[in-house]
């Protein structure tokens, strides 16, 4: 039997096949990017629904006799053997496949059904989902939850806002404050931390606990649950209710999980419950690609899997099918700088391929243009847009790229986590100033910015002014008890609005920031809220940079509207349906692959991001970069800028790490080298550490201290296809 089946998986390599054809019980596959982990999951599914595990220990299928089993064991040429195989096949409805995002789950499903030899009728019923979707399904069947009972993000926000208002907690900006609060409430649930032991990072812990308990009370009174509850409640339900647990663990006997390195505690504990007692749990992952620590992901669960499941099978995959030799060398050289990791070997059968190209630009705008040219160049050479991706560290970097894509009519997909910068409150403030300058009757805009910066126009005054019909600005003047100094502030505002009225958008923003004092307001705001000013400044810089391209407000506003619509369209597009370039953050690109990948904005402060400074955070940044570059199959471009928002920046340290430091012994007479300053050359002779090198650009050989150059990383050995 084994032989017949094995033949069907001949195209897999030995270790992949071993994983796919493994018996029942827990199984872990740990391996680097592009080694076929997801591929193995696909084939494992195929195998389960076509043949079933070879050692089906807990049930003999109906209709199978003792003789049959003998045939299967000993006589694979028997006419009945082939037919008998299918008796062991697993019902697809008992298989659960989990991954982390909706998009990824959808992509896995597509990938599975696109596999050759998938008999669609027979394969129907496998459940592909995210932890959230699966756990909610379980909750729903127990409590009869209706989808309306799930608190939507805006309702949750409103409830938390109300609670904090009633508790008279001071904050200046709602959005930021509530963001932090929501994240923290999520974290304690994901990590199964008991509230009474928890120290808050946003508020005094006492206050934080109170908010949480009010929030919990609200939800139970209204019979609602939120996104985090889906995980936590499901865990509680299965833990406390043996009947329900056994119902579900009997239903999904086979559980397969991709990207296991990003699992968090509550997810892991729930999966442990669900997969017991048989533990037909098949997990694949790569600790080097763990990039969700901030949301409670714990790669330790992957690494310690064999301790938790004593009889776990364990396979490592060591052949990379995705990328060229150079890309693999480069990425290994980068990730090897991480101290806390599980060492993995990786070989490739692919050719060495091209060196990465470096795209250098003055600033972000020029960079976007250069990247667009790079895309169009590939397109001209016959590559499809869908084989190209631009990957970046932070959402904000999407702004310039989206702009250029719109200008040059290049279709794009936007991975769904990327927000529109113009929808951020800072952008809205700026736009409100501009709109108000054009039209003093724009009451909404006035209300938005009247105390940004502080003009000491109290809520009471605005309330009074609002009671009267007409123009708010004028009504404020008419409110009783308005003091002269307040009037002066209003006059000053009017003067400023008049000054920006006819400016170009870019200049207007500069004026709002400096002369009106919006920058100072933001600094003060950040201090007050105890958050980093950097992120907000970056956003302002980005908006200002974007605006500089427009001559008039109308033109700019049109563009903003266009961006809003196109971004929505770009998100709605289904990958594969249209020929479009993918724009994604490093987080969003996990698991994907493209012929050509460009990493945008590869400079210090962006990647690694300036908010990450501890050694552990730097390792996470390095993993992010690693995820980015390992998406490339054949061509990798690394883009850097000299200036970001008018300030000089350094190339990312990860670029240096892409070049392995050669050792002195590797330098011999006759080999070709590359020197950062002098360019290409050939070594004529070596004495001690001093080499005489004939540079292509030179006339006479030059004496170079190899040791010094190696230490300073300014020399590399040029490898050609023959060595
Ligand atoms: P990541 O860690 O980035 O998610 P992965 O380990 O899941 O990577 P896959 O996406 O499964 O890797 O595989 C990478 C590429 O290699 C895919 O295009 C896949 O089809 C191909 N591949 C995997 N195994 C084989 C094989 N045995 N023969 C040919 N191609 C293969
Ligand atoms: Mg994968």
UniProtKB/TrEMBL annotation:
It comes from the Bacteria. It catalyses: ATP + H2O = ADP + phosphate + H(+); Couples ATP hydrolysis with the unwinding of duplex DNA by translocating in the 3'-5' direction. ATP binds at residues 31-38. It is an enzyme of class 5 (isomerase). Its EC number is 5.6.2.4. One of its GO terms (molecular function) is helicase activity. Belongs to the helicase family. UvrD subfamily. This is DNA 3'-5' helicase. It comes from Defluviitalea saccharophila.
């Amino acid at each position: 039997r084994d032989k017949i089946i094995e033949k069907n998986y001949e195209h897999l390599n030995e270790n992949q096949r071993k994983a796919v054809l493994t018996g029942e019980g827990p199984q872990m596959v740990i391996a680097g990017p592009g080694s076929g982990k997801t591929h193995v999951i696909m084939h494992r599914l195929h195998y389960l629904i076509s043949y079933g595990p070879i050692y089906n220990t807990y049930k003999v299928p109906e209709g199978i006799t003792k003789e049959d089993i003998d045939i299967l064991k000993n006589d694979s040429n028997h006419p009945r053997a082939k037919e008998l195989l299918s008796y062991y096949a697993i019902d697809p409805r008992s298989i659960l496949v989990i991954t982390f995002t909706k998009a990824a789950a959808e992509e896995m499903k597509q990938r599975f059904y696109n596999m050759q030899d998938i008999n669609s009728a027979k394969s129907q019923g496998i459940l592909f989902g995210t932890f959230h979707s699966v756990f909610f399904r379980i909750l729903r069947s127990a409590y009869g939850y209706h989808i309306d009972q799930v608190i939507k993000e805006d309702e949750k926000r409103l409830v938390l806002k109300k609670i904090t208002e009633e508790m008279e907690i001071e904050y200046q900006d709602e959005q930021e404050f509530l963001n932090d609060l929501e994240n923290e409430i999520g974290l304690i649930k994901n990590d199964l931390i008991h509230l009474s032991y928890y120290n808050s990072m946003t508020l005094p812990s006492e206050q934080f606990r109170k908010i949480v308990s009010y929030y919990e009370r609200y939800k139970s009174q209204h019979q609602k649950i939120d996104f985090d509850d889906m995980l936590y409640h499901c865990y509680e339900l299965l833990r406390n209710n043996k009947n329900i647990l056994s119902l579900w663990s009997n239903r999904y006997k086979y559980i397969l999980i991709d990207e296991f390195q990003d699992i968090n505690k509550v997810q892991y504990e729930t999966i442990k419950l669900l997969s017991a007692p048989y533990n037909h749990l098949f997990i694949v992952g790569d600790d080097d690609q763990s990039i969700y620590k901030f949301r409670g992901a714990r790669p330790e669960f992957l690494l310690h899997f064999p301790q938790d499941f004593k009889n776990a099978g364990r396979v490592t995959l060591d052949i990379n099918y995705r990328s060229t030799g150079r890309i693999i060398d480069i990425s290994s050289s980068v990730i090897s700088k991480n101290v806390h990791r599980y060492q993995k070997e990786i070989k490739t059968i692919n050719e060495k391929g091209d060196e990465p190209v470096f795209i250098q630009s003055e600033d972000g705008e020029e960079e976007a243009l250069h990247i667009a040219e790079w895309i169009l160049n590939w397109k001209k050479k016959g590559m499809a847009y869908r084989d190209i991706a631009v990957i970046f560290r932070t959402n904000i970097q999407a702004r310039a790229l989206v702009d250029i894509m719109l200008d040059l009519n290049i279709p794009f997909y936007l991975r769904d986590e990327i927000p529109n910068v113009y929808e951020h409150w800072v952008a809205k403030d700026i736009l409100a100033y501009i709109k108000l300058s054009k039209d003093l009757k724009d009451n909404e805009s006035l209300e938005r910015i009247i105390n940004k910066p502080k003009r000491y126009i109290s809520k009471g005054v605005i309330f009074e002014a609002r009671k009267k019909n007409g123009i708010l600005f004028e009504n404020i003047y008419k409110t009783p008890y308005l003091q002269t100094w307040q009037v002066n502030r209003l006059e000053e505002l009017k003067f400023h609005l008049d000054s920006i009225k006819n400016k170009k958008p870019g200049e207007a923003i500069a004026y709002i920031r400096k002369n009106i004092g919006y920058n100072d307001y933001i600094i003060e705001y950040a201090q007050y809220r105890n958050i980093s000013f950097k992120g907000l400044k970056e956003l302002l810089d980005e908006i200002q940079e974007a605006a500089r391209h427009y001559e008039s407000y109308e033109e700019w506003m049109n563009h903003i509207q266009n961006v809003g619509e196109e971004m929505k369209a770009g998100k709605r597009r289904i990958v594969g349906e249209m020929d479009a370039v993918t724009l994604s953050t490093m987080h969003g690109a996990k698991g994907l692959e493209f012929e050509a990948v460009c990493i945008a904005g590869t400079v210090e402060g962006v990647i690694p991001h300036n908010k990450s400074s501890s050694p552990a955070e730097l390792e996470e940044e390095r993993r992010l970069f690693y995820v980015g570059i390992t998406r490339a199959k054949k061509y990798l471009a690394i883009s850097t800028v000299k200036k970001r928002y008018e300030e000089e920046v350094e190339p990312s340290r990860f670029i240096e790490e892409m070049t392995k430091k050669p050792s002195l012994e590797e330098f011999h007479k006759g080999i070709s080298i590359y020197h950062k300053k002098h360019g290409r050359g050939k070594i004529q002779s070596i004495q001690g550490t001093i080499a005489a090198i004939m540079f292509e650009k030179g006339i006479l050989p030059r004496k170079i201290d190899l040791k010094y150059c190696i230490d300073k990383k300014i020399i590399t050995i040029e490898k050609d296809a023959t060595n």
